[in-house]
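Example with several molecule types.
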Amino acid sequence: MSNTESVPGGTLTRVSEDSLLRVTDLSLGYGEGADEKRIIENLSLTVGNGEFVSIVGPSGVGKTTLLKGLSGLLKPKAGQVVVGGGALEGPHRDVAVVFQDYSRSLMPWMTTRENIAFPLQGRGQKKPLRNKAADEALDAVGLGGQGNKYPWEMSGGMQQRVAIARALAYNAKVLLMDEPFASVDAQTRFDLEDLVIDLREKLGVTIMLVTHDVDEAIYLADRVIVIAEKPATVVDVIETGFGTHRDQVATKADPRFQDARGRILTRLRK
Amino acid sequence: MRTLTNVLWRLWLPVLLVVLWWFASANSTNLFVPPLSRILGVMGRDFTNGVLLQAMSSSLSNLALGLLIASVVGVALGLILGETKRLRLILDPYIHFVRSVPQSALVPLIIGIFGLGSASKIYAVALACVWPILLNTIDGSLGVEVGVRRVSRVFGIPRMLYYRRVVLPGAMPQVIAGIRVALPIGIVVMVVSELFASNVGLGFYILHSSSTFRIPETWSGALLVGVIGYVLVIGFSLIDRQILAWYHKSGAR
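Resulting structure tokens for the full complex:
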């Protein structure tokens, strides 16, 4: 994938081999002309192949807006989002999203298998094939054999697992997660965090997680990107250096964890 | 055991009413209020000689076809209007205007336009039934969760599949409610449409018997229409429970 392409400014740049998602000078907002309100300004970042990046910021900073921009639901006011070599112009086959509110993002009239297979059906995949993919995804998130259940027959944590399975089955290059564990209880939250770490270790998925929870951001990611100010932009970037394996107790007791935590909290308090 | 108690609990009142009616009217000499025994006797006679069966089959097939047309048109149009704000804003006033006209009053016009055959009766039923179905479908489609729409966009669901698997099932509870409202309206218009220049159907049976002073027949016809309405509503709620199993069991709304 070492192709070359033109970037704004006209110069030819060699895209690094493992840069999967590249955001350049992205500005996002709502309204036009005089009513225009910028939420995100001049934000740049890159996510490498197989990398886990967290974006953390205070409530109301514009995380959801950023996620809409990254998933192609919102057109940039300026700058661009490049996924796997092409600029994003709308929802993209290479980007899958896990939304915060599982109860509203799963369809209650479909079984879990149908929910997971639905995006594949949209892609024109035949039924036996997409059902097989759905069952494999269910296995991967620890819900093997539960394909015939309806979402409302499951607990919140299980429903969020289904939403994760749906994104996995879509087989996108990048998995975007919008505060995916915000609506579940603490224990379930730890389980889901470890599930995501596990999935990443096994499947090598590239993940970008947006959250307001500083601990979660550090615990999960290789790199934490801190956004703040109005309009929001990147104010700090921290490499965690934990490797792919984590542990709820040991990792969180690691001095590097504590350092990162202190640094981010101080930065956000400004 | 519990279902038996339930059935008994629901049955005692109608049984009591029928018994009261039977005895209160037993010695009636009023031409317009014949004894219930005579009404039922006439009904039994006209069932065995086929008169009522023929009337029923003609009326019910008109009702079924009219309701089918109304459902197809109402749901298709309702989903499109629900999803297309601009179109909805343009058409909304007209929908409410046409809907406010009493549908029975339009029956003579429809018969005038479409002629005396069963086609005009079917159209009359369809025209009367389409409004509650249309309006409910629009409401239902507007009520589809934002989250579900967003998921469909992110995962690039094609338009037709989106309508079929997301908006339609999401709106289905209201669609079913709309059809439920349309059903009795359809029965009224079905009967009314047979009162004008007709020689078949339950409406004709009722009108013809009353204008020839065969009042027990008039009663039995009216009674039969009521029973048909009741049976259809019950049957429909069984279908409802099948189609909307997820909705009733999830208990989310």
